[in-house]
């Protein structure tokens, strides 16, 4: 009976993972001639099984940004590439190795930004929510990371400038003290020389 319950729980967990999917937006910024179109193809049947005839068409937007959307099951690894379909139907494959995508449970929505030529330039912009939190999903993007890094750099630079100013102030005070000390020593030496090494006479005050 216990074994049956465990099998049932495992089956339900597998079914839950299979039912859960991640909304993925594939994005490519690449210029092409009028009448040409970029498509997405990959190893999975939902990507056309590497058959250009079954590839997913992408939509053009300002800035020569091409996008297409898919719901991908959690934990499913995907191999894919973009292809360029010419006016006459000829196909140009994206150069380099196959691109890879791995999804995991913490994701809810994700944008995959790809470079046509550089496979290592892949960027993921993900929106995720902690499984034990009721808070709104957080968005983690390269732009926000860059802004945070810039703020940290500015704070560090300000701290360096402040420390440098403090050091300059301390050096000025030390120089002033040294100059004041030297001036006092010179006055003493002058006074000694004036009286030929003898102590300066003490002036007696007249009694009134």
Topology summary:
Elements: H1 2-19, E1 21-29, E2 37-42, E3 56-57, E4 59-61, E5 65-73, E6 78-85, E7 91-93, E8 99-101, E9 107-114, E10 123-128, E11 138-140, H2 142-194
Parallel strand pairs: 1-9
Antiparallel strand pairs: 1-5, 2-3, 2-6, 4-5, 6-7, 6-8, 9-10, 10-11
Could you walk me through the main structural features you see in this protein, from its secondary elements to its overall organization?
There is one protein chain. By secondary structure, this protein is of the alpha+beta class. The protein is built from two helices and eleven strands. The strands form two sheets. It has a six-stranded mixed sheet. Strands 2, 3, 6, 7 and 8 form a five-stranded antiparallel sheet that branches. A hairpin with a 3-residue loop joins strand 4 and strand 5. The chain is elongated, with a radius of gyration of 37 Å. Residues 16-118 form the CBM20 domain. This is CBM20 domain-containing protein.
